[in-house]
Amino acid sequence: MTLAVLQHHLPVLVVLMPLLGGLLVAIIRHPAASWPIAIAAAAASLAGALALSREVAANGVISYALGGFPSELGIEYRVDAVNVLILVVVSFMALATLVFARLSVASEIDEGRQPWFYTMMLVATAGLLGMAVTGDAFNAFVFLEISSLATYTLIALGRDRRALVAAYQYLIVGTIGATFYVIGVGLLYLATGTLNLELIAERLPEVTSPRALLAAEAFILVGIALKLALFPLHAWLPNAYTYAPSAATVLLASTATKVAVYLLARYIFGIFGLHREFGDISGASLLILLSLAAMFLASAAAIFQNDVKRLLAFSSIGQIGYITLGIAIANSDALTGAFLHIANHAVLKGAAFMAIGAILYRCGSERLDDLAGIGRAMPVTGAVLTIAGLALIGVPGTSGFVSKWYLVAGAFDAGKGWLALMIVASSFLAVLYVGRIMEIVWFRPPGRVALAAAEAPGGLLVPMVALATLTVLLGIAAYWPAEMAHSAAEALLGVRP
Amino acid sequence: MRLDIILRVAAKFILAPLLLFALYVQFHGDYGPGGGFQAGVIAAAAVILYALINGQAAAERIVPGPLVERLVPAGVLIYAAVGVVSMILGDNFLDYDHLAHDTVHGQEWGVFLVEAGVFVTVFSSMIAIFYAFAGRRPT
Amino acid sequence: MTFVETLASEATRYVIVIVMVAGLYTIIARGNLIKKLVGLSLFQSSVYLLYLLPAKIFGGTAPILDDRFEVYSNPLPHVLILTAIVVGIGTLALGLALAIRIKAAYGTIEESEILARDAARAEGKERGA
Asked: What interface predicted TM-score (ipTM) does this complex get?
């Protein structure tokens, strides 16, 4: 195959690579062979995503008909400025996580189960990439379930018996969410006669029954909101993140919810429209309210956690609030901020959870009190945790600052100065929970655990430091990601078709 | 194990037609309702029936557990490989037009191979699920 | 419309909604992990019906083109639901497997008892520390 042919097939290859990798790992099922295959598959996928981003920037939307069927009948993979950003983020984080996984998985998971672990990581990645790349509503459901089933398995592989309960609860909630989504898609299909998102949007004006559409919208949005852990629907997330194996937590925290956010944005802007009124309230104001609740309540809950992973999990729920807030404000700057935050939060939360994973690798504990003075024993790990924490707050010079800056600018632009104030105010809550970690890690006298610990091995440090460096780089030289996020925002708003 | 003579005899009569019916459903998928999903479940039902009557150990002598666990991804691999082959032949992923000398036969071959992959995966998944639950030792 | 057709078009819709809500209620109201999965299956089954109801056309045959037939059923919903059923089986199998592992780890499959045992253990740890 020549390069041009390869180029043509990129939209499907990006998803196919991790899937094939996962299948190979499952067939060979040798602990030593699993990791190299997984790395190769993830690297190929990332290369494909990067090539796609170049092509989209040059030529605009790419459409790929699966099986050669016209888009009305078959499944269309559709890559534009919006989802190419998600593809790059997901495939990059998958690769970084897999690099980190080698030592972490070796210490946390039985040898016999390690190949299955890598299979599930790759299948989850393939599912998430598929959700992002597909332009077909039902195909998105299938990929959603593929990634979800793999995710439940990953969580259940955790060492604590509570991991089983967390996986079970997530399975119930996740399946309800996915089923809600598929009910909504069914109603849309009945109303429009097609499953292609573009064609649905085209045919919506002809639909005569507004009730069916309202029901479809309610089911789809609530279903997706369950998967992205939008504020009152977030109950599954803290336990799932806390008890999953470290590497699985890194992948989940940095990619799974982000892809669901993308799907939400796709439906809100591509199909339903944000400013639909439900009685007296509009969809936008409801989403703003829930986002604010997430930003304040989840961040406040994070302050009182005694388990670092759980603390960061609550912080994730709060950070998702910033992203949905950007979607709800819905102007160019705010959406740019939202998409930047998708990328930035993925990288910085990945770094933070990797640092926690490294501490768990060395100390076998992730209780906050056991981490006293750990920064002196593991200075690099502590530094990574600090950089990620500063970015969570939004300190200038880190990536978190850039995305919040765009969000604030968007809020002012929309004439909602009070929202900008809220963004800054909620950042103080982040100061509190990050400060709590920092105080324990750096300023407490080293405890029993810290005295016995040594710096994490290189295999864990390399991906961790790379992500932390990226967090700083994205804060100083934000041009390239900001440009990508901006074109994503413009594409969603329809300024640039 | 001694009082179940009716079950044993009945099972012997059912097993062969069951497998034959699975093949019928598999290959008749081109002309009527049927295909890999249904055929895979029916064929798996035959193995599961055998395991119910003669015990799981006997069933594992015919269809070993490790083999089943590798057949699950192998079936998906067949499916994906058909897609990759169609890409190499110059079509889109899973477009079977050039798998044979003309498009109609190409599509027929494509669907046939894909359904074979589906059969393998569904058949082995069902058995794997059964083995996993039935082979559990009380703790 | 004959009685059968009325029944098929109207009554089925009510049945779908009843099954859907019954499933959802079971998931929420029952504490037994297995019963929750039964509810989940009911809930998913109602969606299968939701898709299949409009796809069935009276007098329609399987959608394999032939000169003798003019009316065909819509194949797309059937295929979609075949996929959804497979997904449902996967979910159910995984859920049951988790229930078994939970039973082995906790000795119970009642949600309230599991939470109580976790709470008791956490308390014991605090006291021990």
From this structure: 0.90
Give the count of domains, chain C: 1
Task: Judge contact between A340 and A482, C-beta under 8 A.
Answer: yes
Count of all residues that appear for chain B in the document: 139
pLDDT tens-digit readout, B68-92: 999 999 999 999 999 888 888 888 8
CB–CB of A90/A48 below 8 Å? no
Nearest by CB to residue A175, choosing from C40, C54, C77, is C40
Neighbouring CB atoms inside 10 A of B139's CB total 9
Token pair 């997706």: residue? A224
Q: Under DSSP, is residue A193 helix (H, G, I), strand (E, B) or coil?
A: coil
| 3-class secondary structure, C97 | helix
Is residue A419 within 8 Å of A325, Cβ to Cβ? yes
DSSP string, A235-292: THHHHHHHHS-HHHHHHIIIIIHHHHHHHHHHHIIIII-TT-EETTEEHHHHHHHHHH
Nearest residue of B to residue C107 by CA position? B139
* Domain with A438 in it: 287-497
- C-alpha to C-alpha distance for A127 and A437, rounded to whole angstroms: 34
- For residues A251 and A311, what is the distance between their CA atoms, to the nearest angstrom? 17
Does A68 contact B91 at a Cβ distance shorter than 8 Å? yes
Position A246, amino acid: S
Question: Residue A164: which of C50, C76, C101 has the nearest Cβ?
Answer: C101
Average pLDDT per 10 consecutive residues for chain A, totaling 497 residues: 78 92 91 91 94 89 85 86 92 94 88 90 95 93 95 92 93 94 91 87 82 88 92 89 93 92 91 70 85 92 90 93 91 92 93 92 83 86 93 90 92 89 91 91 83 83 93 86 87 68
Q: What pTM did the predictor assign?
A: 0.93
Q: How far apart are CA B132 and CA C97, in angstroms?
A: 8
Residue type, A334: A
Whole domain around residue C53: which residue ranges? 3-128
Query: Is the pLDDT reported for residue B3 higher than 80?
Result: no
Residue A74 located in a structural domain:
no
Q: Would you give the DSSP letter of residue A373?
A: T
DSSP classification of residue A1: -
A353 within domain boundaries: yes
pLDDT for res C24: 94
Q: In the beta sheet, which residues pair with residue C110?
A: C32
- The reply to whether A278 falls in a domain is no
Cα–Cα distance for residue pair B116/A371, rounded to 1 Å: 55
Q: What's the total number of domains in chain A?
A: 1
> Residue C67 sits in a domain of what CATH number?
1.10.287.3510
User: Is C87 at the interface with chain A, CB within 8 A?
Assistant: yes
DSSP β-bridge partners for residue C32: C110
pLDDT 10s digits, A212-264: 888 898 999 999 999 998 888 888 999 999 999 999 999 999 999 999 999 99
Inter-residue contact A346 to A93 (CB < 8 Å): yes
C20 contact residues in A (CB cutoff 8 A): 183
Helices then strands (H, E): number in chain A?
Answer: 23, 4
Q: Are B68 and A41 in contact (CB under 8 A)?
A: no
Cα within 13 Å of Cα(A101), Cβ side? 31
Looking at the complex, report in whole angstroms how far the Cα of residue B139 sits from the nearest Cα belonging to chain C: 7
Domain presence at residue A453:
yes
